[in-house]
Write a structure and sequence with these properties.
By secondary structure, the protein is an alpha/beta fold. Helix content is about 45%, strand content about 15%. It is built from 15 helices and 11 strands. It has helices at about 5-10, 10-25, 40-45, 50-55, 95-100, 115-130, 135-145, 155-170, 195-210, 225-235, 250-265, 280-295, 315-330, 345-355, 375-385, and strands spanning about 30-35, 105-115, 150-155, 185-190, 215, 240, 270, 305-310, 330-335, 360, 370. The strands form 2 sheets. Strands 6-5-7-4-8-9-10-11 form an 8-stranded mixed beta sheet, sandwiched between helices. The protein has a 3-stranded antiparallel beta sheet with strand order 1-2-3. Helix 11 runs parallel beside helix 12. The longest helix is centred in the last third of the chain and has 17 residues, at about 280-295. It is elongated. It starts with a helix and ends with a helix. Residues about 40-55, about 60-80, about 80-85 and about 95-105 have low confidence and may be disordered.
Length: about 375
């Protein structure tokens, strides 16, 4: 299954909420209309009025066999069919209008006038999908522009919504930049359980597969499981993992890791950090200390600070970006656990409010479940549109 397929499948909670909500909104006050669905064959060969008229006037072809050539032996004539065996008459040809409409089948489509009441319902739906008030208001206003007072179907609104989401996300869809500077120091931060350790392992494996030399520093010295998890990824990717005794100073480990990476000529140094709650001042100060120590070695480091966000936290992700941005100068985002939430809309709110690059999104535990962010695929998955 393609990554888009996985994304759509695993964003089902978000997309089904939006889909179901849109259908309810349109049906509430909407009217059913009969439309004719054009067949592919008709779409491939449009019928002109002159051609249709010529077809109607043309004589029916005869069923008599052509005469045999003179130099060939005539074939024995077939016996006359009995009246009971005569073929049924061909159905009457559709008229010009029928052929012009593509000989399609009629179906019922419900459309509703886009008015203030419908816009309010649409805005509430987007807010409950975690897009936030400001983003939801802006999106619905853009959808209404030039369409207010017109009738729209559920599919038409889904398409418009996907276009708006993709437009917001397009400027922030940027892969992690690779600089000529060696080693490029990438500090990875986030709260407990956001998926930092797994994200580092996947990034290291992907960069190593792309031919980059990578070193990992297991800076979460307070959680033995995090160190072990990184060591497993390091063995799998052929990447060295630097560790320190449990409870030791993570800033000191980060400094030593930079020295090691410089000596080895590594392209990338990925530094894991302990999960920190943004409301714990002592833990956040420790993160600030890591940044200060790194800059004693290289004043331009860290060259990237990735904030890993858990999609299941919903609107709380906005607070995390604000707090971590002040202390660690966050340069880009990675969103994980989109497979376990109905809150995928928070990614739209993040892009609209902060404009920080979204380097990757995760929808599972496998290495290929962390991929570069594609705004159009995400918009289709979120709104339930087909690929």
């Amino acid at each position: 299954m393609s990554f888009f397929g996985k994304l759509k499948q695993r964003l089902m909670k978000s997309s089904s909420r939006i889909e179901d909500g849109l259908e309810s909104i349109v049906e509430d006050g909407g009217e059913a209309e009969e439309v004719v669905k054009t067949t592919p064959e008709a779409a491939a060969e449009p019928v002109s009025e002159s051609k249709a008229a010529a077809d109607d006037a043309a004589p029916e072809p005869t069923s008599e066999p052509a005469p045999a050539p003179a130099d060939e032996t005539p074939q024995t004539a077939a016996p006359e069919p009995s009246p009971a065996a005569e073929p049924a008459p061909e159905p009457a040809k559709p008229g010009f209008l029928g052929r012009l409409m593509g000989r399609g089948e009629a179906k019922q489509v419900t459309r509703r006038v886009l008015d203030d009441d419908m816009l309010e319902q649409l805005e509430e739906l987007l807010i409950t999908s975690d897009m936030g008030v400001e983003t939801a208001t802006r999106v619905t206003a853009n959808i209404a522009e030039g369409r207010f007072g017109k009738k729209l179907s559920t599919d038409e609104i889904k398409s418009l919504l996907a276009q708006e989401v993709a437009r917001i996300m397009e400027p922030v869809a940027k892969p992690l930049p690779i600089y000529a500077k060696k080693p490029q120091v990438v500090l990875v931060v986030g709260v407990n359980g956001s998926g930092k350790t797994t994200t580092i392992g996947k990034l290291a494996s992907q960069f190593r597969a792309a031919g980059k030399s990578v070193v990992i520093a297991a800076g979460d010295t307070f959680r033995a499981a995090a160190v072990e998890q990184l060591q497993v990824w390091g063995e799998r990717a052929g990447v060295p993992v630097l560790t320190a005794p449990e409870g030791s100073d993570p800033a000191s480990l980060a400094f030593d890791a930079m020295t090691k990476a410089e000596t080895d000529g590594a392209d990338l140094l990925l530094i894991d950090t302990a999960g920190r709650l943004q409301n714990r001042a002592d833990l956040m100060e420790e993160l600030a200390k890591i940044v200060r120590v790194i800059r004693k070695k290289d004043e331009t480091a860290p060259h990237n600070t990735l904030l890993v966000l858990d999609a299941t936290t919903g609107q709380n992700a906005l607070n995390q970006v604000s707090t971590f941005g002040e202390l660690a100068d966050v340069s880009g985002l990675v969103m994980t656990k989109l497979d376990g939430t109905a809150k995928g809309g928070v990614l739209v709110a993040l892009a609209d409010r902060f404009g920080l690059p979204i380097h990757a999104i995760g929808v599972g535990e496998q290495i290929d479940d962390l991929q570069a962010f594609d705004p159009e695929e995400f918009a289709k998955a979120l709104t339930g549109l087909d690929a």
